[in-house]
Here is the input.
Amino acid sequence: MNVSEALIKMVECSRGNRHDVDHFLKVYAYARTIAQGEKVPPEVQRTVELAAVVHDIACPLCREKYGDTSGKHQERESAALLRRFFQGTDLDRETLERVVYLVERHHTLTGVEGLDHQILIEADYLVNAGESGYGEENIRHTLETVFKTGTGRALLRAVYLDA
Here is the structure.
């Protein structure tokens, strides 16, 4: 499955929820940009982009099952949904398992393993900061303690701190 096919399928899975679609499209754009800026290898680029597209696949289920989309609920429910989402596609097992790993941990800011994981966390935060109206203190703290990539740091400063 290529990234464009995953995007279309995720739009369909979003059940007309424009906020969800807008959110994952923005996370995808930031993840793609950060990965390109960090000059990751093509296979990492593809994995990051796929993970960004599907990172909130559990949101509709979590709203229904728990009444919210907390990070812990999303992380708990995502693996089975992802395996169904990619079932019958040509996505290789190694990439699938890495995407599952990243999505299951995209709200976990400790024990980040791999540049792809770091990029997904940074891309999601860049979008959440705007959507949730994070204050300058939160953004500066996150810049200092969470953001590691040069591209992600530059984007965070340019979008939220240098205005």
Remarks:
- The mean pLDDT is 95.
